[in-house]
Amino acid sequence: MKLQQLVLLLGVFGMQISGTRTEVLPPPVLTLATPGVVREGQSANLQCTAPEQHKEGVFYLYLEGSNETLQKLDAQEARHSVTFIVSGLRTSDVKKYYCQYQARVLDRLQSSEASNVLQVMVSVPIWVISVSAAGAVAAVVVVVSASVLMVKRCKDRKKQKQREMESVWTKETMTSDWSYDNMVFYKVGV
C-alpha cells in the first residue's frame, strides 16, 4: 500500500501519523495603530502582528461575539503583520475586535489562536461638545428670558386694570350739548 493511501485510511479511522497533525499557532497581538484619539467619522488602523517566524501569513479581523470575517489581508513578502482599516466609526460604537492568522508550517496551512481583544471607542470632537454646550446654554437663556417677559407683561396688565378700577375718571363721551367755557361746564339749551 502506498503512503498516501495509508495516511488517507488512517485519517478515516481518526488516527494521525506523527508529523501530520495540525497544531495551533501562537496568537497574534492586536493593537490600535491610529495615533491619538479616534474621532467620529475617522478610520481606525488596527495592526495585527504574528510572531516573527510566521511571515507572509493570511490575517483575519473579527468582531467579538461573531465568527464572521470582517476583513482578510495577506501579509506582504517577508512581513509578519498587517494593518486593518476600520472606517465609518460613530460615537455610539464601542466595538471589540480580535484577529487571527494562518501560516504555512511544513507545507501545511495552520491557524493561530485568537489574539487579544481590542476595544475601540470613538470620542466626540471637543468643538462638538462646545457647540452643544453653547446651544444648551443659549436655549436655557431664551426660555428664561421668554418666561420673565411673559410674567412682566402679565403683571403690567394686572397693574393697568387695577389703576383703571381705582381711577375717578370714567370713560364717557361728551355729547354736543356740553360746552367748555372758562372751566365752567354748562348745558346749552336749557
Automatic annotation (TrEMBL):
Domain annotation Ig-like: ranges: 27-115
Transmembrane intervals: 126-151
Q: Does the keyword Transmembrane apply?
A: yes
Q: Record's superkingdom? A: Eukaryota
Q: Does the keyword Transit peptide apply?
A: no
Which keywords does this Swiss-Prot/TrEMBL entry list? Disulfide bond, Glycoprotein, Immunoglobulin domain, Membrane, Receptor, Repeat, Signal, Transmembrane, Transmembrane helix
PROSITE patterns per UniProt: IG_LIKE (PS50835)
Short name of one Pfam family: Ig_C19orf38
Q: Where is the signal peptide?
A: 1-22
Q: Which PANTHER family match?
A: PROTEIN HIDE1
* Name by which UniProt lists this protein: Natural cytotoxicity triggering receptor 1
Q: Which organism is it from?
A: Xenopus laevis (African clawed frog)
